[in-house]
Amino acid sequence: MLLFSKWITYTTGDHKGMDDKYGNPSPYFRKSFELKDNVKKATLQISALGVFNVYINGEPVSNDYLSPGWTDYLKHLPMVTYDITNKVQKKNGIGVVLGDGWALGHLGSTTTFKRTGYSDRIEFSATITVEYEDGTKEEIITDETWRATQGAIRRSDIHMGEYIDTRLSVGNFSDPDYDDASWDYAWAPEFKFTRNPYVWPVINPPTVVKHTFVPKLLERDGNTYLYDVTQNITGVLKCVFNGTRGTKIVFRHGELLDKGKLYTENLRKAEATDTFILSGTGDEVFRPLFTFHGFRYAEITVYGQAEIKDIIAEVMYTDLKETGTFTCDNPIVDKVYQNALWGQRGNFLNVPTDCPQRDERLGWTADTQIFCKSAMYNMDCKIFYKKYLRDVCDAQLGNGVIPIVAPMPHVGFLNYVGHDAAAGWADAIAEIPYFYYMMYGDKRIIRDTLLPLKRLIDFYEVESPEFVRDRCWGYGDWLSINATTDMGVISTLYYARTVYDCAELCHVVGDYEEQHYRDLYENIKKAFRARYMDENGKIFSDTQTCYIVAYKFGIISAEEARTHMTRKLKEDGGHLTSGFLGIKFLLPTLCEVGMKDEAYRIMSSTDFPGWGYSVVQGATTIWERWDGYTEENGIMGGMNSFNHYSFGSCTEWMYEYCLGINPHFENPGFREVTFRPYLDTTGKITSASGHYDTDFGTISVDWKLEDGVYTYNVTIPEGIEYHFDFVDMTMIRAKTNDNTYTFHLKAK
User: Fold this and answer.
1) Are residues 408 and 476 in the same domain?
2) Which pLDDT score is estimated for 2?
3) For a tag on the chain, would you pick the N or C end, based on fewer CB atoms within 10 A?
4) Taking Cα atoms as reference points, which of 721, 719, 716 lies closest to residue 736?
5) In terms of DSSP bridges, do strands 27-34 and 91-99 run parallel, antiparallel, or are they unpaired?
6) 658, 688, 715 — which closes off a domain?
7) Same-domain pairing of 304 and 278
8) Is residue 663 in a domain?
9) β-bridge pairing 348-349 and 351-352
10) Which residues of the chain fall below pLDDT 70?
């Protein structure tokens, strides 16, 4: 156990502060040790302030990267456990190399983009526990007997990139017979407290390489090569070079080309640049360990003489199993689904980030809660969101406010964003547990988050004595297009929704305050209608988002929503206008209030603004902004990510409304499912299929339209209670075969 190991470090340069551009060289550590022959089990436990790679006897211990991951290190230090039974022998060597990672490297956004957010010193602690067949145990711990030096990695930073000089390579430093006589000794920092009570086991799956691409060479201009990965990804390049000693190779990364050249303006302060210096010893492999980039295009410039012998792009993200699929015969809608899936792949790297490319890459709470149900259809996110919700709880302020990001960077960020609760952001502490319980049926997540949720509502109650939040700070319906929703409107709506969620979660665990929250919800609902609605049901600021969110949060009726959405779509030229908070509810609301034709029209449209517009512009991921690029104005400068999953929250509509798979909150974890498809009668989609893997087995659905008849097939695993509800359809006939049901339907 780490309880008996010391935290050790090694100084590789002058002290670096928060405003320094780069950090120091990576420290390398090693130790040789011998074991008896009859090893039954050997386990390595390791934690770090920074990120690490570990090697034993010349081989990596695992295929993971950027471990132990990111959390609020001032509250929890993540510990990784590896089974190394098959890697140890009688005579052994262990080597550890550290990078700055999230603990020392840059974090924040724009003016808060600073280093050393959690620590100004890189260090680690490790224990090898050996169990012998005779019942005895032995431990090898980190202490001042470990040797340390610096080597090829001259600096590393998640945002800035990695600089590797192979002329300074320490070679195979985990070899048992490695000569470390010239190395220094590590040293153990003195603490006024011990870190060990804060060391918790890592619960997230590791970050690994999940996919690879072979980039296409687009252009060579002298010694500069421009490559297209063909997909906007999160990861790094892995290359093989052969060249002369001292040749410098520089890698730059970007999401777009502008007039045929690599576009990097939207990276802001993130350099996203790697450097590789050749030793001239033959074929040399470049693969950075302690950074990642969000990119589709890469520019490689060779300063000197070198041949590029091989190049691949490695896609990295948390090792989550994909549990769902969707496809349809409309190429635009089908591509939107794929783009949203790739957005999830690109941003689920230890925490659910907003973007993987610029000086940000933060766990924004609104982005996460808006997309969480879509994410849970696509991938098994049980452990991933459990870990993130711990980050959210750790970030909660003393006044009960849930900040806009989690984990919270500790250098300047809180002063930048303030101590108020941003509507839709703070409410992640309600929405994510609500949908987590619906999808997975695990009550433990409620018990872990209910008290922080109540503390947030306490804050709302104190600041909102008249049941409306009309004096608050926030982002509102962020990045809406041609429409601005009043901050009081959106804040009060989310106040109501969060209180509703709390009442439902209290009911699940039998909490005595359930009725208080139900009464509070009714009071907020009445106050909203009195404060923000006129006698005709028009909501103040009168945007699409007003009506779809108010409807989905139970404030207005389906008839009211239909009346005003019909009017608003006409006034807005048939175009969507919603931003981050509203867009999740647009298509579901249109279906539920009797406007499903509009839902299919908007979903499949290629007009600006909309999902399809980005598709015809060549998008391979979801854009942050509807107007990130337009044919009229080109690329919008500044804050403009082209891999941002928030608008991909339409994915849950594909599963639940196009395919018709609807879980129940009252009987969660897909113990009960209603199949309620809103089949397209406009001809935009004439066939669709998909599946979702439940704990009971795989639910699969496919439907198609032929000669005016819809054939709807569904396979339901045993153990699931199920119902069918075909909206606006007349059943012609039905048949069953084992667990597969086939229905023939006609539109009414």
Assistant:
1) yes
2) 65
3) C
4) 716
5) antiparallel
6) 658
7) yes
8) no
9) antiparallel
10) 1-3, 191-194, 197, 412, 414-418
User: How many other CB atoms are there within 10 angstroms of residue 57's CB atom?
Assistant: 18
Are 527 and 613 part of one and the same domain? Answer: yes
**3-state secondary structure string, 114-161?**
ECCCCCCCCEEEEEEEEEECCCCEEEEECCCCCEEEECCEEEEECCCE
Determine the Cα angle at 93 with ends 92 and 98, to 5°.
150
Do 631 and 507 fall into the same domain? yes
**DSSP string computed for 587-623:** HHHHHHTT-HHHHHHHHH--SSSSHHHHHHTT-SS--
Predicted pLDDT at 277: 98
Please check whether residue 42 lies inside any domain of the structure.
Answer: yes
Reduce the DSSP state of residue 328 to 3 states and report it. Answer: strand
Beta strands in 50-90 (DSSP E): 51-56, 59-60, 77-83
Residue 180 sits in the same domain as residue 267: no
3-class secondary-structure state, position 482: coil
Task: Indicate the DSSP class of residue 95.
Answer: E
Would you state the structure tokens that stand for residue 549, as one six-digit string?
């969110």
Tally of domains within the chain: 4
Question: Is the domain of 442 the same as that of 475?
Answer: yes
664 part of a folded domain: no
Query: Residue 311 has what pLDDT?
Result: 98
Torsional sign, CA 112, 367, 424, 511 = negative
Q: Which active-site residues does the annotation give?
A: 360, 624
Tokens found for residue 330: 């409309």
CA 513 to CA 503: how far, in whole Å?
8
Determine the Cα–Cα distance for residues 471 and 452; give it in Å rounded to an integer: 22
> Residue 449: which of 559, 372, 560 has the closest Cα?
372
- φ, ψ dihedrals at 394, nearest 5°: -60, -30
Residue 690 to residue 683: CA distance in whole angstroms? 19
152 and 186: one domain? yes
**Which residues of 304-350 form beta strands (DSSP E)?**
306-318, 324-328, 348-349
Name the residue range of residue 698's domain: 672-747
Instruction: State how far the alpha carbon of 261 is from the alpha carbons of 225, 255, 256, 303, 404, in Å.
Output: 11, 11, 8, 19, 35
Distance CA 271, CA 264 (A): 9
Whether 454 contacts 462, CB under 8 Å: no
Whether residues 644 and 713 fall in one domain: no
Give the amino acid at 575.
H
Taking the C-alpha atoms of residue 57 and residue 89, their distance in angstroms, rounded to an integer, is: 9
Closest CA to 364 of 644, 590, 623: 644
Please calculate the CA angle 541-545-551 and round it to the nearest 5 degrees: 105
Q: Which of 495, 502, 517 is nearest to 421 (CA)?
A: 495
Task: Give domain status of residue 667, yes or no.
Answer: no
The Cα–Cα gap between 63 and 54 comes to: 10
